[in-house]
Amino acid sequence: MRRIFRGRSAGLRARRGAPQILTASVIACGVLLSGCSSSEPEASSAPPAPQASQVESQAEAVSHLENLSEGSSLVATATGAEVSVFKKPGGKNGKSLASPIESGGPLTFLVTDEQDEWLKVHLPTRPNGSTGWISRDEVQLSTSPYRLVVSMRKHQLQVLKNGQSIGEHEVGVGKAATPTPPGEYYLTELIQPNNADGAYGPYAFGISGHSDTLQKFAGGPGQLGLHGTNQPDKLGSDVSHGCLRLANEVITELAETLPLGTPIEIQA
């Protein structure tokens, strides 16, 4: 398959033969990524996506934040049917999050701190910026060398690998009435819509954040997304219900490269 990229994108390629493979989930785009488009929701089923991302391996598994290479992040993926989340390490009366999630993909967290056998993680729940503590025993740890930074003022998405910029791309963001909320988030799932030429393009990532103005939309929770578009002429403007839109060739390349748990910083 020929891959085309806008902007400076040298180096944004998944290494063949890497051990971890991220497969896109099957989902109703109009329900989950419900803050994204002004179009009607798309059909509720989709064929399985191709193998989407191969994460670069390391000589030794990284299980602590202090051992991460520059620009990398620590990602935790549920190994069982649920993960218990607490307000503090060793806490009681925690809440449980189910795995797999509604889309069929694995429950994933971005790790921000650690204390002995406990991990502090970003949560894919309201309110935006929620964190909690989980046990190492309930997750498998991996790393992502990638990071996304979105400037809404510039309508630009920057891709970084190991702390170095490898691509800059034009992006559409939320309208004034339904703005994209700034903050620190991460990629929670990858889906493939029925219609690659539809409002969401060929791929859509779920983001851990939610709209501040839409508590519910089109039957879903107002979750943010990063996806393609069938209106490329509107990239570089305030156009969506809160989601981030990219050119279809760009979202395809990202879908084949980025692992779940990759952080995305959205700046005003």
TrEMBL record:
Q: Which residues form the active site?
A: 227 (proton donor/acceptor), 243 (nucleophile)
Which SUPFAM superfamilies does the entry link to? L,D-transpeptidase catalytic domain-like (SSF141523)
Gene3D superfamilies referenced in this protein's UniProt entry, alphabetically: L,D-transpeptidase catalytic domain-like
Q: InterPro entries this protein is in?
A: LD-transpeptidase, LD_TPept_cat_dom, Transpep_catalytic_dom
Concerning CDD domains, the annotation shows: YkuD_like (cd16913)
Give the record's keywords alphabetically.
Cell shape, Cell wall biogenesis/degradation, Glycosyltransferase, Hydrolase, Peptidoglycan synthesis, Transferase
From the UniProt entry, list the residue stretches annotated as the region Disordered: 39-60
Q: What Gene Ontology terms describe where this protein resides (cellular component)?
A: extracellular region
Which GO molecular function, any one, fits this protein according to its record?
peptidoglycan L,D-transpeptidase activity
Question: What residue stretches are annotated with the L,D-TPase catalytic domain?
Answer: 146-267
| Pathway participation | Cell wall biogenesis; peptidoglycan biosynthesis
Task: Please give a single GO biological process term from the UniProt record.
Answer: cell wall organization
Superkingdom of this protein's organism? Bacteria
Q: What protein family is recorded? A: Belongs to the YkuD family.
Give the protein's recorded name.
Answer: L,D-transpeptidase
| Organism of origin | Kineosporia babensis
